[in-house]
Design goal:
With 300 residues, the chain is mainly alpha-helical. The chain has 12 helices and no strands. It has helices at residues 41-68, 75-96, 98-104, 110-123, 133-161, 164-168, 173-188, 192-200, 204-232, 243-252, 258-269, 281-290.
Length: 300
């Protein structure tokens, strides 16, 4: 019999749990300028990458989670996952609606979104594998990858809820409401993906491996997306996207701080980490109660 002490378990904050619901939202884009953060095309377009990645990515989340539902033995977790699926489907649709507006303003996102669609539908999509262990392995890999991605979507959601510099610089109210509605729901459901992974697998090696895959893919896709927008913005001459610009924008508060993003890595990889330890459900719910787009109003 081994005398080795048990590995530390993720430390959940029980008070942060909430019943999830998909909210019907409405946003109108005809008055939103191309540079919705005035005088700052780089920060605008770096955040705009969300509109390129999220529709395909969140539809992929929904597809994978529908396959994972039969593996769930806990009824409350099943309800959480169903609520998560509803919210993610709405996020995908809301960001999808921004793309035609960008095209009308002279910035056609199709060449980039085609690559993103290929990534999620082909590279990360269903595979023809022998039934049983191989199929389950691929499903669990994707469940773990979503948990890692959701760590960063919750990080970004918490950031945008507290990014007062965007208000001070006159960010377009409609775009800011979209981002904060989405960010608030990411904070609200930040524990679901991790809880699902721990329920169906929970292996630390898989958690660390898929974090590395997800983090690398996100950094790669985000820098490509920002570069695509800057290079194809019809109002810019030789637009560029560099790490230096990102770092300086983080210092100004118009993008997440590089240091905070780096510190989030050991946070996720800690064996005692649980998403409920970060962010505030109360803050998220308060914003959702006041969001014009989520309550049938207008952000302008």
């Amino acid at each position: 019999m081994s005398n080795k002490p048990p590995a530390p378990a993720p430390a959940r904050v029980a008070s942060e749990h909430i019943d999830l619901q998909a909210r019907n939202v409405s946003f109108s884009w005809q008055d939103t300028p191309l540079h919705w953060l005035p005088g700052d095309p780089f920060a605008t377009h770096t955040i705009n990458v969300l509109h390129l990645l999220l529709p395909a990515g969140e539809r992929w989340f929904v597809h994978v989670y529908k396959q994972a539902l039969p593996l769930i033995k806990d009824e409350r977790l099943r309800e959480d996952v169903v609520g998560f699926i509803g919210q993610e489907a709405m996020h995908a649709a809301a960001h999808d609606d921004v793309l035609p507006h960008l095209k009308r303003l002279g910035l056609d996102p199709t060449p980039y979104t085609a690559q993103v669609d290929w990534l999620f539908e082909k590279l990360l999509g269903d595979r023809t594998l022998p039934p049983g262990r191989a199929q389950r392995w691929w499903l669990l890999e994707r469940v773990a990858m979503i948990a890692a991605i959701e760590h960063y979507t919750a990080f970004l959601g918490n950031w945008v809820l507290n990014a007062d510099e965007l208000d001070r610089r006159g960010a377009d109210p409609m775009m800011l409401d979209l981002l904060r509605w989405h960010g608030a729901e990411e904070v609200e459901h930040r524990s679901v993906a991790f809880d699902l992974f721990m329920h169906v697998d929970g292996g630390y090696r898989r958690r660390a491996r898929t974090w590395a895959t997800a983090f690398t893919a996100l950094v790669f896709l985000w820098q490509r997306g920002a570069r695509f927008f800057m290079e194809n913005d019809p109002t810019l001459h030789e637009g560029r996207a560099t790490f230096g610009q990102f770092y300086r924008a983080g210092q100004r508060g118009t993008l997440p701080a590089t240091g905070a993003m780096l510190r989030s890595i050991p946070t996720y990889l800690s064996r005692t980490y649980h998403p409920s330890q970060e962010g505030s459900t109360a803050q998220a719910v308060a914003y959702l109660a006041s969001s014009p787009g989520a309550n049938g109003g207008t952000a302008r």
